[in-house]
Amino acid sequence: MRRSSRPSRPFRASLFAALVAAATACATTPPPAGPAPSPPTSPAPSSSASSAGSAATDAGEAAPKAARPPRVTLPLCGCALCAPVVSEDACTQDADCAPATPCHAEACVAKAKAKAPTPRTSCTMILRCDSVDANTCGCLEGRCALYPRKK
User: Fold this and answer.
1) C-alpha to C-alpha distance for 1 and 11, rounded to whole angstroms
2) pLDDT digits (tens, 9 = 90+) for 53-93
3) In this prediction, what percent of the chain has a pLDDT beyond 90?
4) H or E segment to which residue 89 belongs
């Protein structure tokens, strides 16, 4: 009797069944359950700040972290601001003003108040329409402002 180099039919059938079972198991495996993120909570008002702090410590809870303030979105006209964002910093010419931060600044301030980039500063290449990426800094009516570029 001559043996064939091809696998036998029962072997192929069992291999096919194993592959189908593995594919089905992988397709129906639910994602791992993790703790659901909870929205930031603000501490309840109390008559005494020290009693609120000691109550949190007594309960074994850590003091709540300071939440980042929500980002204010400004109205846009295309990919530019509709209205200038004016600072309190006085100026006499455009050269007196600079972006407040090195990357994607959302405000313009006096050059002395502008945060300088560090050697490790690396900005992303994203274009943000509410920042100096699409607008310009300059002196507007005696105040530093972020305003739409002239077209």
Assistant:
1) 19
2) 444 444 444 444 555 555 556 677 889 999 999 999 999 99
3) 44
4) strand 85-90
Q: Which two tokens stand for residue 81?
A: 């601001």
Query: Which one-letter amino acid corresponds to residue 107?
Result: A
What does R_g of the chain's alpha carbons equal in angstroms?
30
Cα 138 from Cα 60, distance rounded (Å): 52
DSSP string, 132-144: TTTEEEEEETTEE
- Tokens coding 57: 């410590």
Instruction: Please name which of 88, 84, 116, 86 lies closest in space to residue 100, comparing C-alpha atoms.
Output: 116
Residue 151 CA to residue 147 CA, distance in Å, equals 12
- The two tokens of residue 78 are 């295309």
Q: Is 142 left (phi over 0), alpha (psi -120 to 50) or beta?
A: left
CA-CA-CA-CA torsion sign (85, 87, 92, 95): negative
Pick the residue with more confidence: 70 or 123? Answer: 123
How far apart are alpha carbons 81 and 74 in whole angstroms? Answer: 7
Query: Which residues on neighbouring strands pair with residue 111, listed in sequence order?
Result: none
pLDDT exceeds 90 at position 47: no
Q: Are 95 and 135 in contact (CB under 8 A)?
A: no
